[in-house]
Amino acid sequence: MSDFSDKALLPAGMCDVLPNDASSEAASMEQLIACFSALGYERVKPPLIEFEESLLSGSGAAMSAQTFRIMDPVSQRMMGVRADMTLQVARIATTRLKKAPRPLRLCYSGQVLRVRGTQIRPERQFGQVGSELIGSSSPQADAEIILMALEALNSLKISKLSIDLALPTLVPAIIDDLNLDTETMTSLKAALDRKDEAAVTKLSDKLGEPATSHLLAMLRCTGPAEAAFAALEMLDLQDKAMDERASLGAVIEKIRAGAPDLSLTVDPVESRGLEYHKGVTFTIFAGGNRGELGRGGRYLAGGNGDEGEPAVGMTLYMDTILRAVPPTPSGKRLYLPTGTSSDEARQLRAEGWITVDGLTQQTDVGNAAKRLGCTHFLSDGKIASTN
To answer: Across-strand partners of 108?
Structure first.
């Protein structure tokens, strides 16, 4: 392999983002942030690296396996490179902005780095754009975040959007009193994630008949939101599980009020990738596109376990979004032959042109313009097309 090839080789999951895609990503990120800002969300900018104990404390422990760790040469303490920005924003809200009025609305954008990719998302570094609503437990807050995500994605002209709702706290509410061992819990979680009724049935000796019956029924309560929730309402659940179910119903109602035609589905046993969430969660998809555009849900900001402020947020993934955004025509690029005055160039830019200066005298200005990717060129004071 040549020296040049060695220098061009990047680690798995990393890539160079070239001009057109880099411009599209930057413009899309700012458009999303503009939508959030229009609804009262204020922008924050957390650091790329934090001390390990703050980055991975409390709910942050869910991202521990995906976090790169490095030693700080100044303090000699371990630091982590962020693998997700949600919990950083939650830390800001509960420390630096602890005394700010609630509910607190924050938004953010930036790059994250993960130890490994997945089959669906092999990238290990990618951009995130998101928002957090902290200090409210109202179902209206959940709906606000979801409806805002839809509005922001629609502003990018992404079509065929759908939302899949989940309730990762419902299964624990049913089985918490069973004192299941770790092996059984792991097997049960895997079976539910695979929607494997036979595997759940095999665990019935440890689960007992009532829990097994409820879990099998919940596996069938999957599909369009209204039908799935109606089936879920038929189950005779205990108090805690009934409360979780009621919260899901309230969120569905609020979403439908704002987006009656939205493709909305429910999966009450889904828990993959939702480890730190404490209520209704959601995943956003666009028809015809691989992978999820984003996800989010309810969690506790700050603290450990069941402590902390009620919060709901979302994270949008720029790598997936860029695959779903319709291609946009490039701007009008105007080649200016050498000798064009600065005043004339400024005036042309003020009129909306992207100007590219010719640094040397050219005998064929039109050909030089085309070679540099310009759509037009200036010749004898007049603008001509390169086509």
So the answer is: 130
